[in-house]
Amino acid sequence: MKVTVVGAGNVGATCADVLAYREIANEIILVDIKEGLAEGKALDIWQKSPINLYDSRTIGVTNDYSKTANSDVVVITSGLPRKPGMSRDDLIETNAGIVKSVTEQVIKYSPEATIIIVSNPLDVMTYQAHITSKMPRNKVMGMAGILDTARYRAFLAEALNVSPKDIQAVLMGGHGDTMVPLPRYTTVGGIPVTELIDKDKLDAIIERTKFGGGELVKLMGTSAWYAPGSAAAQMVEAIVRDQKRVFPVCVKLEGEYGIDDCYLGVPVILGKGGIEKVIELDLNAEEKALVENSRQHVKEVMAVLDKLN
Ligand code: LMR
């Protein structure tokens, strides 16, 4: 399997590293626009192989997309990260142009690839990649739900003093302050979370999750990379190993949840066909209203992109 990761910054390099040490793909191409950066990080990942015992090969290239030809999956992390005080949406003007030109290059050399977008603002950059690539919706998706649920699950694990492995959760909506963690679909070793934690504490965790990316931006002056890079690698794994994993993923909705023509995080089945199925939950009125609020926000940012294009 051949996987390309575009962008050798913190998120892209972390994703390539996870793909290599977990041997998710045997050939990993890391691309960056900055001379030598991808080559250097790829070499570093390769030099770690005798220590961590893997034989996946990572090759770095500077802007040479011919080396990415015939990739099975391409992860696009390119674009600026936000700085403290910025919202993800503030990145739209710069990142839309970058995601558009990267997608054109990717499709030119790998017309059959499944594309995973990581660049922000996530839902709208997935829209950008979808309209640029003209691929079917099952092959163009955004990584956010795995990251956002991971934050939610990690906070819950800490509060309950249990292993994060035992926390399962669903989260829907856009990758921003309007995201919708769903306590009714959150369990701890099969036990509904609401039986184990007070409402106040759970509400506080939900609020912290919504601003989880911003919390890290404030701490570090730039955005996160370990969890985002690992989350993208987990999506690649589900596709290349045809695992049929159930994850929240950003996809163009075409009538599901009564929503048309909007890119939003929803639970899906992820396998070698990309998004093989969108799972429709039976949401209650309150949950529906929260998802609708998120849809409206994403639609507004999609309209900004339409104007830019
Ligand atoms: C994240 O959630 O970590 C990313 O979307 C980056 C950011 O700006 O928060």
From TrEMBL:
Molecular function (Gene Ontology), one example: L-malate dehydrogenase (NAD+) activity
Gene3D superfamilies: Lactate dehydrogenase/glycoside hydrolase, family 4, C-terminal (3.90.110.10), NAD(P)-binding Rossmann-like Domain (3.40.50.720)
Positions with a binding annotation for NAD(+): 7-12, 32, 95, 118-120
Domain Lactate/malate dehydrogenase C-terminal positions: 147-302
Coiled coil: none
EC number: 1.1.1.37
Xref: InterPro entries: L-lactate/malate_DH (IPR001557), Lactate/malate_DH_C (IPR022383), Lactate/malate_DH_N (IPR001236), Lactate_DH/Glyco_Ohase_4_C (IPR015955), Malate_DH_type3 (IPR011275), NAD(P)-bd_dom_sf (IPR036291)
Top-level taxon of the source organism: Bacteria
Residues where substrate binds: 82, 88, 120, 151
Gene Ontology BP term (one): lactate metabolic process
Keyword Oxidoreductase in record: yes
Family the UniProt entry places it in: Belongs to the LDH/MDH superfamily. MDH type 3 family.
Name the UniProt record assigns to this protein: Malate dehydrogenase
